[in-house]
Design goal:
Number of helices: 9
Number of domains: 3
Helix content: 40-55%
Radius of gyration: 20 Å
CATH architecture of the largest domain: Orthogonal Bundle
Strand content: 15-25%
CATH superfamily of the largest domain: 5' to 3' exonuclease, C-terminal subdomain
Length: 195
């Protein structure tokens, strides 16, 4: 498998680039943030790659980090998510932000990814929790009641006019002993974080 290319950038386009490695031009499909991080044509660049093999095509995908490449490979194992869907995930979210959306079971955040509806988002959460060794919701380990409280707090923040991203950010900053707090206490703490 081709895991890394180091060469001169020939051209960049919206969905990838062409990289010249010792006289051989490799066409790479890439997530949007990785394309945006490319240097100008003519400059040297190193790209982590994944070779996707199908009966009718060999397609090379490029990434700016090993973490993004590895997440792409894991996403290919989710039912209903092919290479195009995996690229859409990595174009919408950095690997850490995507993992946080999975850990917090944030269906709203996952459905912002083009081509991902509620059913696919739920399947991603279910299948990727084990594959990525994600913990249960870290703010409240092992407590489904506390998880329900956080879902309620998120809903309240959205009803107060905060965006899903702002609500998610506030929930991530809550203390790790969230299990001992009521919904009202958690909402007050979240509002303080947003102030």
């Amino acid at each position: 498998m081709i895991a890394l290319l180091d060469g001169v950038l020939v051209s960049a386009r919206e969905d990838g680039c062409v990289l010249d490695v010792n006289g051989v031009g490799y066409k790479l499909a890439m997530p949007t943030p990785a394309v945006a991080a490319l240097p100008p044509p003519g400059k040297r660049v190193r790209v982590h790659t994944h070779l996707h093999v199908r009966e009718d095509a060999l397609t090379l995908y490029g990434f700016d980090t090993i973490e993004a490449r590895d997440l792409f490979a894991v996403l290919l194992g989710v039912g209903g998510i092919g290479p195009k869907g995996a690229l859409a995930v990595l174009s919408a979210y950095a690997p850490d932000a995507f993992r946080k959306a999975l850990v917090t079971e944030d269906l709203d955040a996952l459905t912002l990814i083009p081509g991902v509806g509620k059913k696919t988002a739920a399947r991603m959460i279910l299948e990727l929790r084990e594959k990525l060794s994600l913990p249960e919701l870290e703010v409240v380990p092992g407590s489904s009641g506390a998880r329900a409280a956080l879902v309620e707090v998120k809903g309240a923040l959205i009803n107060l006019g905060y965006t899903p991203a702002e609500a998610r950010s506030a929930l991530e900053r809550l203390p790790s002993d969230g299990a001992g707090h009521s919904v009202e206490d958690l909402l007050k703490l979240a509002l303080k974080e947003l102030a």
